[in-house]
TrEMBL record:
A single cellular component GO annotation: cytosol
Family annotation (NCBIfam families): HAD-SF-IA-v1
Name of the featured protein: Phosphoglycolate phosphatase (Putative) [Lactobacillus plantarum JDM1]
GO BP terms: DNA repair
Protein's organism: Lactiplantibacillus mudanjiangensis
GO molecular function, one term: phosphoglycolate phosphatase activity
Pfam families in the record: HAD_2
InterPro entries per UniProt: HAD-like_hydrolase_sf, HAD-like_sf, HAD-SF_hydro_IA, HAD_2, HAD_sf, PGP-like_dom2
Tree of life domain: Bacteria
Record lineage: Bacteria, Bacillati, Bacillota, Bacilli, Lactobacillales
TM helices/strands, residue ranges: none
PANTHER family linked to this entry: PHOSPHOGLYCOLATE PHOSPHATASE
Amino acid sequence: MTYQTILFDIDNTLINSADLIAETLQKGAAATGVNVPVSEYRKRIGRPGDEILKEFGVTNWKQVLADYMVEFERNMDQLTYFPGIEVLLSNLNELGIQTGVVTSKDQVRFARETKYFPLIAAAKIVTTSDLTTKSKPSAEPLLYTVKMHQLDLEQTLYVGDSVYDMQAAQAARMDFSSADWGALPDIEFNYAKYQLARPDVLLKLI
């Protein structure tokens, strides 16, 4: 099928970042006495950090998130695009297909992190978590994006690595493709229209 617009999640879809996020959040929470295995944090990447911390009972989550921002930024030189992502984004733009991101990062985090990733920073379609009242897995971020940028819902595809991305697309009735190159191996993407092993396979679909 030909899509006019392809929207992407960022963490572990475009950027190989989920492990660093999980480890940094876990370290910050553990310093306050909340000891949850890092694997449990990794399973929840795709949701806002405050929601994850609250779920695990971190009461001073605001301070933990503030410390997280400092620690994460200190280690951002470890982050990279997944192989093939830069070529994929460039080729989609050359084909005249709109691209954008719908992320659980707020605007401050988005600006800080994407300065290292100019292809993402230059996206004309950006929906951050603080632009909507609900975050993924709610449909609201995707539907907000469709409305604000006057997209054709039926010709828009969302690509993400987590079950929360899939659930958001399902709730919005938007086509969804899993980014299996960044997803945990045990996730069942039962709603996904496509399950892609590599970024370059997406070009073959369109």
